[in-house]
């Protein structure tokens, strides 16, 4: 999967935005001007780790609604399933401080990427949700 990192000057409190794996030819990870602010500039790598989590297929930790976040009341429950126990300190959660990669992030990502088709060629699933493998072109 090809993607470009693109800087966008935008008046916003968002530092960045990325995509989920898909069948598109080219995708974009956006870095917004707020990421270069005094508040975030020294922690930009943390933002990239969070956004790369999306590129790898990870949702926000609070997407299912069982983890409280400090920054939003939104819930992104559509098609979100949990692999492991909730971790409010996950790099994929919003907090007032810069996100930090946790061992739980590494473990659940490894578990996610170790899923394979069964002997009959059936896609792996988490609960009732099929895992789709998007092969890079």
What's the topology here?
Elements: E1 2-8, E2 16-17, E3 26-32, H1 44-55, H2 103-113, E4 125-126, E5 129-130
Parallel strand pairs: 1-3
Antiparallel strand pairs: 2-3, 4-5
Keywords:
two-stranded antiparallel sheet; 5 strands; alpha+beta; metallopeptidase activity; 137 residues; Peptidase M10 metallopeptidase domain-containing protein; 2 helices; MetalloPept_cat_dom_sf; 15% strand
Written account of the structure:
- By secondary structure, this protein is α+β, with helices and mostly antiparallel strands.
- It has a domain at 58-118.
- Helices cover 17% and strands 15% of the residues.
- It is built from 2 helices and 5 strands.
- The strands form 2 sheets. The chain has a 3-stranded mixed beta sheet with strand order 1-3-2, covered by helices on one side. A two-stranded antiparallel ribbon has the order 4-5.
- A hairpin with a 2-residue loop joins strand 4 and strand 5 (129-130).
- The protein starts with a strand and ends in a 7-residue tail after the last strand.
- The mean pLDDT is 83.
- This is Peptidase M10 metallopeptidase domain-containing protein.
- It comes from Fusarium oxysporum f. sp. lycopersici (strain 4287 / CBS 123668 / FGSC 9935 / NRRL 34936) (Fusarium vascular wilt of tomato).
């Amino acid at each position: 999967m090809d993607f470009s990192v693109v800087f966008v000057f935008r008046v916003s409190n968002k530092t960045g935005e990325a995509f989920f794996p898909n069948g598109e030819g080219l995708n974009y990870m956006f870095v917004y001007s707020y990421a270069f602010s005094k508040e975030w500039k020294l922690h930009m790598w943390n933002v990239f780790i969070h956004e790369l989590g999306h590129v790898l297929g990870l949702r926000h930790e609070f997407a299912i609604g069982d983890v409280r976040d400090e920054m939003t009341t939104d819930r992104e429950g559509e098609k979100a399933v949990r692999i492991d126990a909730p971790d409010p300190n996950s790099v994929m959660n919003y907090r007032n401080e810069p996100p930090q990669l946790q061992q739980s992030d590494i473990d659940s990502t490894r578990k996610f990427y170790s899923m394979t088709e069964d002997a009959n060629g059936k896609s792996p699933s988490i609960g009732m949700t099929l895992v789709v493998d998007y092969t890079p072109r």
